[in-house]
């Protein structure tokens, strides 16, 4: 997963410029043509979001905005690549127009159910069934 960290502009709800839209569209098209793009989208600012916090078995709902923009996510892409090195090379092509040349992009590997030693064979099968039903197999 490629995660575009938020900044003051994304949290303020500043719309991307026409130049940035064009550059991001071109970048995403390249990922699609390469056959690696599975999903991706920009996210609304945290002011339009909520958190549900669990503490001591109780739930509380917290309205946005949330502090520390640098800790928030402004958008994401889910890609499937052969190696981490391949993903790094793809992210190096991220449009420099984003964040006026000052964006932070995080790369995180999506965990597979087979990597969890505590998942019983029944849980693994249930997870695989759910992924197949949602088209995420």
Description:
The protein has helices spanning 8-12, 18-33, 84-91, 121-134, and strands spanning 2-5, 37-42, 50-55, 58-63, 73-79, 105-107. Strands 2-5-1-6 form a four-stranded antiparallel sheet, covered by helices on one side. A hairpin with a 2-residue loop joins strand 3 and strand 4 (58-63). The protein is of the alpha+beta class and 137 residues long. The mean pLDDT is 93. The chain has a single domain, classed as 2-Layer Sandwich (Alpha-Beta Plaits). The longest helix is centred in the first third of the chain and has 16 residues, at 18-33. It starts with a strand and ends with a helix.
- CATH uppermost class: Alpha Beta
- CA radius of gyration is 18 Å
Categorize the overall geometry.
flat
CATH homologous superfamily label:
Dimeric alpha+beta barrel
Strand composition percent: 15-25%
| Mean pLDDT over the residues | 93
CATH topology term: Alpha-Beta Plaits
Quick structural overview:
The chain has helices at 8-12, 18-33, 84-91, 121-134; strands at 2-5, 37-42, 50-55, 58-63, 73-79, 105-107. By secondary structure, it is of the alpha+beta class.
């Amino acid at each position: 997963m490629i995660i575009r960290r938020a900044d003051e502009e994304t949290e303020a709800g500043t719309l991307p410029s026409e130049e940035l839209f064009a550059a991001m569209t071109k970048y995403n098209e390249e990922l699609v043509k390469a056959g690696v793009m599975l999903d991706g989208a920009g996210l609304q600012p945290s002011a339009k979001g909520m958190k549900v916090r669990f503490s001591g078995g109780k739930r509380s709902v917290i309205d946005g905005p949330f502090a520390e923009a640098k800790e928030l996510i402004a958008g994401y892409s889910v890609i499937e690549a052969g190696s981490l090195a391949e993903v790094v090379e793809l992210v190096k092509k991220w449009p420099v127009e984003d964040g006026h040349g000052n964006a932070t992009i995080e790369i995180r590997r999506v965990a597979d159910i087979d990597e969890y030693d505590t998942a019983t064979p029944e849980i693994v099968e249930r997870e695989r069934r759910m992924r197949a039903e949602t088209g995420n197999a």
